Amino acid sequence: MNEKIDSPYKRLMAIRGTGQVLTVTGVLIALCIIFGLVNPMFLSGRNAGNLFRQIAPILLIGIGQSFALLLGQIDLSIGSVVGMSCMISATLMTRGSSPLVASLIALLCSLGIGALNGFLISWCKLPAFIGTLGTMTIARGIAQIANNNYNTDSIGKAAEGFRNLFYYGKSLGVYNAIWIAIFIWLIFNFLLTRTKTGRHIYAAGSNQEAARLSGVNVKIVTLKAYLISSFVCCIVGLMATATSGMGTMDAGNCYELYAVAASVIGGISVLGGQGLLFGTVIGASIWGVLQNGLQFAGAPVAIRNIAIGIIVIVSVLVDIVVRSNKGKTVAKAEMTKEE
Amino acid sequence: MKKSLLIVLMALLLVSFGFSQGVAEESGNKKVYLITMDQMDQHWQHVNAGCEKAAKEIGGIDYKWLAPDVKDDNKQIECINNAVAGGAQAILLAANGPTAVTAALKEATAAGVKIIYVDSAADYPSEQILATDNEAAGKTAGTELLKALNAKGKTTGNIGIVTVNAATASTVAREKGFRATFEGTGFNILETQYSNGDATVSKDMSANFITQGVVGLFGANEGCSVGIGNAIKEAGDQVIGVGFDTSDMILSLVNDGYVLCTMAQNPEVMGYEGMKTAAKVLNGETVDKKYVDTGVSVIRKTE
């Protein structure tokens, strides 16, 4: 017999993944306090705006990677699609396209890579690691030949509107980039928690075979996840073009790994089927706070890398330990009931 | 089963025959390889352009450009080995670091390959070095910034440096020269930030520096300088920025007044003169100048 789950706290904790989200939220608050004490300028209004805007692209790529991880897969092509989107949009803008047309073409190409990922993994049955490894190098190659192996020229004064929309502008006192990230997160969180597709993603990630036998179209669901991932990468690539005012072939370098870190810190399990997209928000925030705060603290770069690595490992360990403990207490409870 | 095995063996024999013929025929042209740090920085594109121009003018040269996809010592070693295996007679090398590639270079010279350094030398003897004196260029950048700060009446304050990484010799030398200029002054240089030359990461780091109240910023290469310029443009804070290299974006930032000046290297001269030296060396001639400083010019806003 199940004990009655009555208090709101217990109800919240009954949702799988909440435990870790709460833990890392505590870590995030602690980090902010520590960095604020070390250098009060960290907590200034100006830095708050910059910090949230630095978190926005990490959150976006985190969303993409989270969808892949929830399926029990991975997307290694994230960084390269960011670079490809940056180069394609910038190259077209320097050749006279309007920012709108350039962005749409970049979007089409990015979704193309996403579809290719889905096709290779679902229909060709390639392991996700291998399939996205291949598209990673392909997309980076496309980024390089987009402007004939050169970084692009400046996208020019005509693109000021584009640059403001994606990066420099503010609406209601908050940077547009932040609004974009929030908006996209709301859409995909809704998709994940309130639609059939979302439930199917969790199901397929928990147990692919069981899901398939229960009528989940695992192939289509996987395709959708990879399309979502490439969509957010396109947006981040456009943000990169807007930030720099030009296309750089190395944009997005290593982003797939940062995306994994953000997801995993937030409690998305790499084994699939578990985790809350809100956790990715916290994970991306911790990432951003570390990068930003350690600079304000005057810490040498090596410390930054070590700190991030430790936090990633500890997050996954916490997840594993808590899960095995839960298993132990449930088993214990059942044994005492039988006596 | 036996028949198909026989056919495969015959095919292999024919192919190996073909290989030996091929090697014998190619003795005419001189094989010269250019190996840079990566293939993405505009800087290397210019070196390559210089090499191609010279190769065309001189004639009789089989020219190839190899580079890793990112700045990495081990990947550059692979390129050197590939060049030697490909029959290179001379290699123009932009060494990623001073000591990492020396073993590969030793093997190359043992195979008879002539080494010429372009842009960055390694700690290994060569026929000639054509480079920007990066430390001197860093000093020039520092002097320009110091002059401008003093002209505004500032003698104290924080300065921020955004550079590539701690291993790439050229940018390390530039930072060294830059820091040397500020020794003994009232200015304090904050902890250097490494962005790997990524323009968006550099912009974030520069924005953080500006929030910390720096009065001056230095970008040690193309990507870093674009980042610094964009951050200064956004902040509108009267921070003075000095950069390196001259891409279209950097020049527009200079002309719009967001970056005070940038150090323009002469990568095309490096490639052009380097190729000419390679041809001379392969012809058996002696090279008189061991070190050619291709120099920097300070590019300011065009009036």
Description:
- The complex is a heterodimer of chains A (339) and B (303).
- By secondary structure, chain A is an all-alpha fold.
- Chain A has a single domain (51-296, 304-309), classed as ABC transporter involved in vitamin B12 uptake, BtuC.
- Chain A has 14 helices and two strands.
- Chain A has helices at residues 8-14, 18-38, 45-70, 78-94, 99-123, 128-145, 160-168, 176-194, 196-206, 208-213, 218-244, 255-265, 277-296, 301-338; strands at 170-171, 174-175.
- Chain A has a two-stranded antiparallel sheet with strand order 1-2.
- In chain A, helix 4 (78-94) packs across helix 12 (255-265) and helix 13 (277-296) packs antiparallel against helix 14.
- Chain A starts with 7 loop residues before the first helix and ends with a helix.
- The model of chain A has no long low-confidence stretch (mean pLDDT 91).
- With 303 residues, chain B is of the alpha/beta class.
- Chain B has two domains: 28-132 and 267-295, Response regulator (Rossmann fold, 3-Layer(aba) Sandwich); 134-264, Response regulator (Rossmann fold), CATH 3.40.50.2300.
- Chain B has helices at residues 2-25, 42-58, 73-85, 102-110, 134-151, 169-182, 199-211, 222-235, 248-255, 267-282; strands at residues 30-35, 61-66, 90-93, 114-118, 128-131, 156-163, 186-189, 193-194, 214-219, 240-244, 261-264, 291-293, 297-300.
- In chain B, the strands form two sheets. In chain B, strands 6, 7, 8, 9, 10, 11 and 13 form a seven-stranded mixed beta sheet that branches.
- Chain B is elongated.
- Chain B starts with a helix and ends with a strand.
- The mean pLDDT of chain B is 90.
- The interface between A and B is large, with 35 and 37 residues.
